[in-house]
Every structure is written in structure tokens, then in C-alpha cells.
Specification:
The structure is a homodimer of 246-residue chains.
Chain A lengths: L9 H24 L6 H8 L3 H7 L3 H23 L6 H18 L3 H8 L2 H4 L4 H28 L9 H18 L3 H7 L4 H16 L10 H11 L12
Helix pairs in contact in A: 1-2, 1-4, 4-5, 4-6, 4-8, 5-8, 5-11, 5-12, 8-9, 9-11
Chain B binds a DNA duplex (30 and 30 nucleotides) through helix 2 and helix 3.
Chain lengths: 246, 246
DNA sequence: TATAAATTTGACCAATGGTCAAAACTTGCC
DNA sequence: GGCAAGTTTTGACCATTGGTCAAATTTATA
């Protein structure tokens, strides 16, 4: 039997498949019950392996949850990079990423809450080094997708360079996006702010930041309704549910 | 002995004092170790009361943490309302609240992380109804402090009414603020974004939102450096550490 | 001081994240 | 097929910890 260094052996494939099975069920439990209201015994029963086997894949419950979050974040980065290929002016491409993030948030309604959990050092310290690095890597991909467009926008003159650096602009967009996704899920705030469509609220805040940055064309200078329809058609053809929002 | 309905009896005063003692030590543990890495036995030992006594004040560990967070949030609301009295144009007063929030964030470096914990339904469900209501009340005070200024700004014509409603504007400011506070604590992002002063990063993002809203006078139309010095002198005279940032 | 009421205590319980020796299974050889 | 060595899986078991409650202690009252 030849040793295949390139393609994984049957054992390795089974190991990977099982890991994905575990992650799938853990994700479901996390979505249904949050972090606390399920335990490793329940998960073991759900995946039809023993608890000991779970711990061959994940060093702790926190490590497992970080694994779930990283899987999600990878999808987010994929969507960001896909959206960045949108043909149009820089601000339109940035807008496409905004849509990508909303698409992601709808597919993963618990992601931002879980991600906030991860920001507790006491939480993330219980996860393995590798998984922490994998998570940081996917986070970097998201950052870079936005940052690249902003650098290009500055080079083209769409975005003034004298107000903020490209990095400050990227940080502003990411902050407002995460903050808006979190706050728009808050029941009290939803009532106060009269939020009917959470994703629309998020994108409005992104628009405000972009206008504040002076990113041409400004909101009132361009027919972004047409852009939105193109984004939905070209980048997210499956997201027909959004047509009303655009 | 006359029954005093107005002023609390000695017993009641002792009860309140003990509750504050418990909250004080719980806050310290929370700041030092996060949520998980301390237990009720350690807290009982620290306050020199038994665990049973702790549970006469708080229905669960989560209830206790919510109590700590609400105490903090009350201070935040106090600072907001104090800052709102700043004499100046509406945007300057909003800016004063921005400073208040930074002042608060420096005094409570763990607050936003804890607050994110609270947003997990599985967490807050374990807290008592009264404490949940108390927390919502203080949150509302913060919201109102901002919202009131925005309504006034729209009435005075400082803030255009045709772009967004007062509530949308308030939501945008709160979202960017919370998002920026959280993200500016993220070590990876701090490196990518080259953040040296976290609070300055937060306030820059607030400025971008205000400019995006068209809130007069815009950043480049006014000497906000002078405003900042006045805010620090008149509202936060103790915050001399900030003079460099202003 | 004696009795009753109120408060405090900490041993105890149940739940749960994590471990590891033993069982079960796979592989390779004759 | 049968056996032995190696590998994987298992679940009983452990330690920790949030939460309880009957007993002990303290306080108020007569």
C-alpha cells in the first residue's frame, strides 16, 4: 500500500468527517440553547459517540465552541471575499460586503453573541492554541477584505485621505457593523429605535459611517437602490427575500 | 417605637450595606477573573459571610453579576446626564456624552464584556425579574440622554430631519459607541488598526457618525479641540489624564 | 432571664466538565 | 482462520461548583 502524503487516508477522512458531525450538532445546541444550557453528555448522545471521543477532537467545551465560531467566521470571510469581487465603484463594493455580512448574520443569528463570549479572556484561554490561531486567521480575512477596498478607494480618490488612515476607516466600518448587529438584536432597543428590519438598520449605520468618511459617491449623490438590486442579483441571487429591503 | 416608613430601619440599612459589600467584592472578582474563574464559596469567604447569606440577596450567580452590571450602568447614566448639561451647541453636548462614555469605560474596563454576557438569553433568564427591570431602566436613561439631545438638534436645525429619524440617529450613535468600545479592546484589531489610544478611536468613530448624519457644525467646520478642553475642564475636571488626547 | 422570632450557617446535593483504565476493535502476520 | 500487537472507543469515575435547607446562632420581646 503506497503512502499518500497528499490525500488523507480513510482514517483521516473519517476523523475529519466525525469532527464535522460534532461541530454540526454543537452548533445546533448552541443556537437552540446558548452556551450553558447543554452539556457534553447530551452532545455525545446526539452524535452517537462517547464523551471520551469528543475530547479527542476538542480540548474543552470552550475549544469546541471556538471551533463552531471559526467555521462560521470562515463562511463570513468567504462571503466577504466573494462580495468584494462586485463590479462597481469602491463604495459599491464596500456596500456589497455590507450585504454579505447581513446575509451571514441571517444564516447565523447567534454568531455575534457567541463571538462576544469568545472575547472573554477566561473563555478563550481554555481553547487550544491552534483553534485560536485559526479563528484569528479568518478574522484577518474579513478585515483585509474591507481594508483592501478602502486602500483602493483612497488611491482612486473616492475616499479622502486627509481625515483618517485606511486602517482607521476599516476599524470604523467593522466597529459600527458589529455594534449594530449586536444592538439591533436587543429587544428593548428594537422598541425604542422602532427597528422593523434589523439588517436595514445595520446597513443604514454603515452608510452613515461611509458618508462621514466622505466616501464618494455619497448616499444622496447616487442611486444606491439600483446598486442594491445589482448586488442582490449578482452576488446573492438566492437572497430574494431581500428585494423588499433594497 | 414609631414605625418609620420613610427612612430605613437599622436592619434595612445593614442589609443594604451588606448587599453593597457583596457587589463590591463580586465586581473585583469579575474584573480580575471574568465570569467563570471564581465561585460563590470564594466570594462568601471574601465578604466574610456564608454562601447561604449571599443567596438571600441574589437568586443566582447570574443575578449577582447582573447586579454588578446595573450598578455600573447606573453610573454610566449618571455621567451621561451630567454631560448632557454641558453648555454649548447640540453636537458639542453630544460630544460631552461621548467623553462621559469614555470616562466610564476607563473606570469600568470590563463593563462592555460583561454586558455582552448579559445579552445571552440563557444568562439573563437566570436573573430575577426585578434586577432585569432595574438594568433596563438604567439602559433607558442612557438612551434618553442621547435621544433628547438629538431631538433638540433636529428641532434647532443642527441635525437634518430628512435623512433619518431621531431614533435611528440615536441607535446609530449607541451602536457605533458600543461596537467601538468592544472592538478597540480586541488585541488583534488593535494591531491591525494601529490603535494607540482606545478612547480616541471610539470618539473618532462617533465623529464619523455625526458627520454622516450631517450634524452641524461638522468636524472641519468648528474648533472641537477647544470644545474638548472645555468639556474636560467643566464636566470632568478630574480627568486630567486626557488632556493629551484632546 | 426565658421564650419566640429572625437570621446565619455550612454540610449536603445534583449537575457537569473532564480523565483514564479497561474494553472493543483493527491491523498485520502466519 | 486465528492470534498478537497496536489503536480507538467507551463510560464509570472524579473534582468542582451552583444552589438548598435543617440546624445553630443571634436578636427581639416579655
Amino acid at each position: 500500500m503506497p503512502i499518500q502524503t497528499s490525500s488523507p487516508s480513510r482514517k483521516e477522512r473519517e476523523f475529519i468527517a466525525r469532527e464535522e458531525l460534532i461541530l454540526k450538532h454543537a452548533r445546533r445546541l448552541l443556537l437552540e440553547k446558548g452556551f450553558q444550557a447543554w452539556n457534553m453528555d447530551q452532545l455525545a448522545e446526539a452524535v452517537e459517540y462517547s464523551k471520551g471521543t469528543l475530547y479527542q477532537h476538542f480540548s474543552s467545551k470552550e475549544d469546541l465552541v471556538l471551533g463552531v465560531a471559526t467555521q462560521s467566521l470562515r463562511q463570513r470571510a468567504d462571503l466577504f471575499e466573494q462580495a468584494a469581487t462586485f463590479q462597481g465603484r469602491t463604495r459599491e463594493r464596500c456596500r456589497a460586503i455590507g450585504f454579505a455580512c447581513c446575509e451571514f448574520a441571517m444564516a447565523h443569528p447567534d454568531y455575534f453573541h457567541t463571538d462576544m463570549l469568545l472575547k472573554s479572556s477566561s473563555f478563550v484561554e481554555k481553547a487550544s492554541q491552534e483553534r485560536r490561531e485559526a479563528h484569528a486567521f479568518e478574522g484577518m480575512r474579513c478585515w483585509r477584505a474591507v481594508n483592501t477596498i478602502i486602500i483602493e478607494a483612497m488611491a482612486l480618490g473616492d475616499l479622502p485621505k486627509d481625515r483618517v488612515t485606511a486602517e482607521q476607516a476599516t476599524f470604523a466600518l467593522i466597529s459600527v457593523t458589529v455594534g449594530s448587529h449586536i444592538m439591533s438584536q436587543e429587544p428593548n432597543l428594537k422598541v425604542f429605535a422602532g427597528i422593523k428590519d434589523q439588517m436595514q438598520a445595520v446597513r443604514l449605520n454603515q452608510d452613515l459611517i461611509c458618508d462621514g468618511l466622505g466616501w464618494k459617491p455619497l448616499l444622496h449623490e447616487h442611486d444606491y437602490r439600483a446598486t442594491d438590486l445589482r448586488i442582490l442579483k449578482e452576488i446573492f441571487p438566492s437572497a430574494s427575500k431581500w428585494l423588499k429591503a433594497a
